[in-house]
Amino acid sequence: MRPLFHSSSLCVFARPWLISRHLSYSQQLQASVLPFQRRRMASTPMVQPRVLPTSGFELLNSIEHFEEESLPDYLKERYYPVSLGEVLNSRYQVITKLGFGASSTVWLCRDLHQDRHLILKVHVRSRRQLPEVQISKHLKALHENHVGQKYVRLVLDSFEIEGPHGVHPCILYPPAGIDILDYMQCLEGVHYLRISFE
């Protein structure tokens, strides 16, 4: 049996706007205290992982297909079996699942070194380099002060984890909770991408 969380504080699927609103607010808060945080980051100890609840929710029948398991080409061995509360790369604690696809699952996680929320994409097992990582490295090396850069979601970190059936590439992104004003300014991001590859 697998847990399906119904707690109001954990149910992301029922209230995705709540996560977006919370993350937008926390991003604003982080921006206002970021200079202070950078000064003290070297001396700040790692935040302790949260203990997630083990009761108070329904259990799913493990025989029934759920989410990515219902994809036509699904093979259990291709996906890393992420557990809620698991700490990956000795730094990122998995909080809840946000989505899935044919090539990855997507999770909200907490960075225990900087006490912030990030988006973790755990890819199916693979030994190949992910193009997102190479593109992000290229873009970070160019035009670092371009006004449009903040509207392009770049990879913050990447690593690999060993699963029961192979190696899984992982990518971390900042949360993408943006409001209408940010959408209106996305053209600056398009301009940044265009001049970066000219």
UniProtKB/TrEMBL annotation:
This enzyme catalyses: L-threonyl-[protein] + ATP = O-phospho-L-threonyl-[protein] + ADP + H(+); L-seryl-[protein] + ATP = O-phospho-L-seryl-[protein] + ADP + H(+)
Q: Which UniProt keywords apply?
A: ATP-binding, Kinase, Nucleotide-binding, Serine/threonine-protein kinase, Transferase
InterPro entries given in the database record? Kinase-like_dom_sf (IPR011009), SRPK (IPR051334)
What's an example GO cellular component term for this entry? cytoplasm
What is an annotated GO biological process for this record, any one? regulation of mRNA processing
Q: Which Gene3D superfamilies match?
A: Phosphorylase Kinase, domain 1, Transferase(Phosphotransferase) domain 1
**Class in the EC hierarchy, top level:** transferase
EC number(s) stated in the UniProt entry for this protein: 2.7.11.1
This entry's Gene Ontology molecular function terms read: ATP binding; protein serine/threonine kinase activity
Q: Which domain of life is it from?
A: Eukaryota
The record's section on PANTHER family has: PROTEIN KINASE DOMAIN-CONTAINING PROTEIN-RELATED
Write down what this protein is called: non-specific serine/threonine protein kinase
Species the sequence originates in = Aspergillus niger
